């Protein structure tokens, strides 16, 4: 039987986001992109003419439309994923996390306890935010430790303990089509862009791609033309708590992980990895030591 962790006994309502972005399924893909960028979200709920949930529009769906050459004026209905996946406010957060993992989705929409109306959404960043909140309020927190104070005798979690080691990359002269194929094949949110010496030069995320789609960029242009720089990194031996704080405060979804040298990329650490770890900064972080407000 799996032992206790920071999410044991916690309900969905403690982590969910109560704002739900909804758009009619008849609205254009272009308008959907505007909504995602404006609110810095990765997906929104599509509704039918009766105002009922009919699908979900994600950055993955939009990237697929870009790859397929679909006109950006086409309605969301053409590309949205359907049906939406739901959980309820009083469901255990661990079961919701397992549902997200099982179906390979980034978010669930949250129904009220009667299952009659949508009252929120739950995504991996929401779970990580809750875990970080626990860390900040914990007496064992690395962040709260006063300088010069003796370190608490607990085993702390490192980035290396939960990062993804398989780092995919594309060449800076590869086309955006190749980038999209790489992201789709390996179900990633971003890919590293390297030069001819295999040195990391930038990153292309799904956000970069949907903006290129929005602005009419030819998908056959080279990767370096839209990549984001610099490559944001952390160390493999860095405390998990510190890496999570960096992502939260800088509005990042991932950090590439360096080994012995800055150019030695050995992994990638994402908010999804952090949420699936189900704990904060150390192995002492269990529900019996956490007060859930």
List keywords for this structure.
single chain; 293 residues
Write the layout of secondary structure elements.
Blueprint: E1 22-24, H1 29-39, E2 43-47, E3 53-58, H2 59-68, E4 86-88, H3 93-103, E5 107-111, E6 118-123, H4 124-137, E7 169-171, H5 176-186, E8 190-194, E9 200-205, H6 206-214, E10 233-235, H7 240-249, E11 254-258, E12 265-270, H8 271-277
Parallel strand pairs: 1-2, 4-5, 7-8, 10-11
Antiparallel strand pairs: 2-3, 5-6, 8-9, 11-12
Task: Explain this structure.
With 293 residues, this protein is an alpha/beta fold. Helices cover 28% and strands 19% of the residues. The chain has helices at residues 29-39, 59-68, 93-103, 124-137, 176-186, 206-214, 240-249, 271-277; strands spanning 22-24, 43-47, 53-58, 86-88, 107-111, 118-123, 169-171, 190-194, 200-205, 233-235, 254-258, 265-270. The strands form four sheets. Strands 1-2-3 form a three-stranded mixed β-sheet. It has a three-stranded mixed β-sheet with strand order 4-5-6. Strand 1, helix 1 and strand 2 (43-47) form a beta-alpha-beta unit. The radius of gyration is 20 Å and the shape is flat. The chain starts with 21 loop residues before the first strand and ends in a 16-residue tail after the last helix. 38% of the residues are buried.
């Amino acid at each position: 039987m799996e032992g206790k962790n920071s999410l044991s006994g916690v309900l969905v309502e403690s982590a969910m986001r109560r704002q739900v972005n909804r758009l009619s399924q008849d609205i254009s893909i272009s308008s959907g992109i505007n909504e995602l960028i404006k609110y810095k979200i990765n997906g929104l709920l599509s509704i039918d003419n009766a105002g009922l949930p009919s699908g979900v529009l994600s950055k993955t769906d939009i990237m697929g439309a870009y790859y397929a050459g679909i006109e950006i004026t086409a309605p969301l209905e053409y590309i949205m994923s359907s049906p939406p996946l739901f959980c309820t406010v009083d469901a255990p957060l661990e079961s919701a996390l397992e549902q997200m993992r099982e179906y390979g989705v980034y978010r669930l929409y949250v129904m009220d306890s009667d299952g009659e109306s949508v009252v929120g959404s739950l995504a991996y960043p929401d779970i990580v935010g809750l875990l970080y909140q626990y860390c900040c309020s914990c007496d064992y927190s690395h962040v709260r430790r006063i300088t010069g104070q003796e370190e608490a005798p607990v085993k702390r979690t490192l980035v290396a303990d939960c990062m993804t080691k398989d780092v995919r990359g594309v060449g800076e002269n590869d086309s955006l089509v190749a980038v999209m194929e790489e992201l789709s094949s390996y179900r990633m949110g971003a890919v590293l862009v390297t030069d001819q010496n295999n040195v990391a030069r930038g990153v292309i995320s799904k956000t970069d791609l949907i903006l290129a789609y929005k602005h009419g960029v030819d998908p056959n242009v080279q990767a370096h033309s839209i990549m984001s720089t610099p490559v944001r990194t952390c160390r493999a031996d860095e405390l998990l708590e510190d890496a999570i704080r960096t992502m939260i405060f800088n509005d990042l979804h991932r950090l590439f992980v360096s080994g012995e040298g800055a150019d030695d990329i050995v992994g990638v650490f994402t908010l999804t990895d952090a949420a699936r770890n189900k704990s904060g900064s150390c192995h002492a972080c269990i529900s019996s030591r956490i007060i859930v407000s």
